[in-house]
Task: structure prediction
Amino acid sequence: MNEMKVFIRMPAVIAATGLSRSTILRAVKAGSFPAPIDIGPHAVAWDSGAVAQWQLDRIAASRKVG
Result:
């Protein structure tokens, strides 16, 4: 059975992460943030599940004892 994906646009990604647009795009380019998905000729969005996993990874990394 296929799970329905929820796509979120840049304003929602900014709100969810607290990062700026330019920081998100730099992180995508660096490979440290999920890449957007083309959803139309002039539109991209992010898989909300991938963004949520990124959030969980950041929380876990911030709580590691070094």
